[in-house]
Design brief:
single chain, 83 residues, mainly alpha, elongated
Length: 83
């Protein structure tokens, strides 16, 4: 099974995706509360943070793809070669 080549940007991608998913879950849970308990400011703060993390994720994905195209790929280490 071929895997995506690893670049110096690869470690950040899963963390950013996970953070974005958590923000979406938090936004959903905040929106499910009764309207009297939620404030537009709280929802707006979630929306702004979601936009920030989305921008960061997109830029990191673009850097990752550019590094692959430029050949800036990390060397592949297999479990057999570690010792």
């Amino acid at each position: 099974m071929p895997t995506d080549p690893q670049t110096r940007h690869s470690p950040a991608l899963p963390e950013l995706r996970f953070s974005l998913n958590l923000l979406y879950v938090g936004r959903l849970l905040l929106g499910m509360k009764s309207h009297s308990l939620t404030t537009d400011e709280g929802i707006d703060a979630f929306d702004e943070r979601i936009e920030d993390v989305t921008d960061e994720l997109v830029s990191t994905e673009l850097l990752h793809e550019a590094a692959i195209l430029a050949g800036d790929i990390l060397p592949v280490t297999s479990p057999d070669n570690e010792f």
